[in-house]
Amino acid sequence: MIEIKNVSKWYGQFQVLTDCTTSVSKGEVVVVCGPSGSGKSTLIKTVNGLEPVQKGEIIVNGQSVTDPKTNLSKLRSHIGMVFQNFELFPHLSIRQNLTLAQVKVLGRSEDEATERGLKYLDRVGLLAHKDKFPGQLSGGQQQRVAIARALSMDPVAMLFDEPTSALDPEMINEVLDVMVGLAQEGMTMMVVTHEMGFAKKVANRIVFMDAGKIVEDCAKDEFFNNARSERARDFLAKIITH
Fold this sequence. Notes:
single chain; 6-stranded mixed sheet; 9 helices; 10 strands; 25% strand; ATP hydrolysis activity; transport
């Protein structure tokens, strides 16, 4: 579903990604982890072209993201993306947040978009809040709305960029529970997160990054029980002991 081949990226002189290669199969959940500044968020944003790359190739669902001829807006409409800071429109109601892109991008009728949006709002447990505005909801609720919005576009894959890092600790589980449910239903997912409990529960594979490079790319059990690199072992020791 997602292929990343020999991708490198620079900001000016600074190289943020170095020769990164990995893939996500249909129905697979891949968690990308590593220390801050390791390039995780940059890597996931290259998948739908939000971050252009200078070298390498990225293919999503058979389409090349890196080909200049590719219609990126169209491609992005099929890849759900959930950001750290929700990115909801504050001046629109929750229902309007859910329907806007469906109508504008997918060309659905207002009725169809509403029906679909509310179905997914119900799926994340927030149907009663459909007429509220984002500012009237907690951070965890806003993030669940953002997930419902992404799902209502019928994505072939979902990208999550540290979806819980802006949340209070008490709200993290309500978002992770929705993501666990998606994983169990077979959604193809690439998730940048520090939540190792979530990774242990649902990831098929772990991609561990450090300093812009993919240091480990292996099955979940191998990573947690027998990480090959000293850098990954050091990272796990710090995260799991505290």
